[in-house]
Specification:
The structure is a homodimer of 296-residue chains.
Chain A: E1 6-9, H1 11-15, H2 24-36, E2 41-46, H3 59-65, E3 73-77, H4 81-90, E4 94-100, H5 103-110, H6 114-128, E5 133-138, H7 151-163, E6 168-172, H8 180-189, E7 198-200, H9 208-217, E8 222-225, H10 245-255, H11 263-277, H12 284-288, H13 291-295
Parallel strand pairs in A: 1-2, 1-8, 2-3, 3-4, 4-5, 5-6, 6-7, 7-8
């Protein structure tokens, strides 16, 4: 197990994106609460079309309203050069861009061929200058469209993006198809070079935590999670939220892996998020607390 | 990883126990559906007071109504000698008895001292004759009442029960306090002798599957699960159901560990259970299917 793990909470972005729109002030307060709980990397907004994603409207206002804490990286998702320019103008610390290892998923998600998305990312990297760019490769562990897509395919794409200037590459289990064996395949495809490589896991099939545990054993140290396990479809029960930040932190605490995050504070934030989204969050630790609470 | 794992579905008992009562015919049909999906061990009923547990009323009728399939073990929970006599009269293949490693939990759950429960189990073992008795030790991975209770304490109690004639011992994570490290502690306390030892995991803190995965790596091959992840409180979202049978089977399928169970058939049973209990089951695989469905 690694001595320390770095977690990026994507709750205010990937988590809130499928929900009914929430006021900018509440989204800012959520970011503050996450940082208060010890998060040092937070994806705070997406500079996307408010028509396409109403919940992400007001991204610049969210960024402008955040009281910055030294040592904290405030990231934003950008879909293209225009979004990157807006995010940079707003003063974010990191850009996240997405591309899919699945050609069909890429077409359906952003209506572009993979090659076109590679070119878009190159333009974002050029515009970003000294601001780091994290390229998130979706369908990193399999595709619902191409049965033969493997982690090796995702790594081949990730290598191109890194060669093209992306500061980090993160492999996303967009549709919850990862398993411990697929995580091991990714590790193999990377030749074991996992330093700086991120994992973005979803719980569609209940495997987010077991995949993270398998990844920890292989040396991965960067994870995307969302407070409360937000991010699933609000219309289907148990439909694929992100790995819950507090569930990963509780596991890491028990394993003696440092995160700098206060799991009890985070569980409190998760419960406050329930009021924001108007329904229970799927995280068990949010409701039951970490085992240390029960044993205390 | 072991080559083969044996799963006992406790859905018709531990799963339905906290729910509103369901007709006997539907409980029988559920048992049949589980066996059709490939389960060869099913806990079908509890011979407890119908006043105390209304959902388990009609236990003898459930057992009588089951069309027995050769090679399948139909088990029932019994709380005491009277229950054992009724279950044996009904013709079950296995008795399960419970006792807690936590003195306080034992008092609150069955209003007995641990020593009294040991004596009750001895009387059940004596009455059972050739019928096997599985002693389930609850709070096997920690107690919400005694902060210093460890897996070693549970194993000490389990050893006494085995010495007293219990055919099998199963360690239960009653309140979801197990973690991969606690599972390793249990393994250590057993001196690595995990053959025939059962694990009964709950998902209160989202750790049921990761604990099972850690246990598989240590050689455990007997698991209690419940179709759909049934067994949590119906009044609180995400409140600690059993490890979902189909989520464990999907993981085992991917790992190449044989179970004899058809995960797609089981996912179908889980969805039919939703209609029985009148609410969504927590299992992700029930809703999204196994990854093989997505990749197909």
């Amino acid at each position: 197990m690694p001595a320390r793990v770095s977690i990026r909470d994507v709750g205010p972005r990937d988590g809130l994106q499928p929900e009914e729109p929430i006021p900018v002030a509440d989204r800012i307060a959520l970011v503050h609460a996450l940082v208060d709980a010890g998060l040092t990397r937070v994806e705070v907004a997406a500079f996307v079309s408010p028509k396409a994603v109403p919940a992400m409207a007001g991204a610049a206002d969210v960024v402008a309203g955040i009281e910055r804490r030294p040592g904290v990286t405030y990231a934003a998702l950008v879909p293209n050069l225009r979004g990157a320019e807006m995010a940079l103008e707003a003063g974010v610390d990191e850009l996240t861009v997405t591309i899919s290892a699945s050609p069909t998923y890429n077409r359906r998600n952003v209506r572009m061929e993979v090659e076109e998305s590679v070119a878009v990312i190159a333009s974002v990297v050029a515009a970003a200058g000294a601001v780091p760019v994290d390229a998130v490769v979706s369908c990193g562990f399999g595709s619902p469209y191409e049965a033969d897509l493997t982690p090796a395919d995702a790594v081949a794409l990730g290598r191109r993006l890194a060669d093209g200037g992306a500061t980090h590459v993160t492999y996303a289990d967009t549709t919850g198809m990862a398993t411990p064996l697929r995580v091991a395949e990714l590790h193999g495809a990377l030749g074991g070079a996992v330093d700086g490589v991120g994992l973005h896991l979803h719980d569609t099939r209940g495997t987010a935590l077991v995949n993270a545990y398998a990844a920890l054993g292989l040396g991965f140290t960067r994870f995307d999670t969302a407070v409360g396990g937000l991010g699933g479809s609000p219309f289907a029960h148990g439909a694929g939220g992100n790995l819950a930040t507090e569930e990963l932190v509780a596991l890491l605490d028990d394993l003696g892996v440092a995160t700098g995050i206060d799991v009890e504070a985070l569980a409190g934030v998760a419960l406050r998020v329930e009021a924001l989204v108007g329904r229970p969050v799927p995280s068990g630790v949010a409701h039951a607390g970490p085992r240390t609470r029960a044993a205390g």
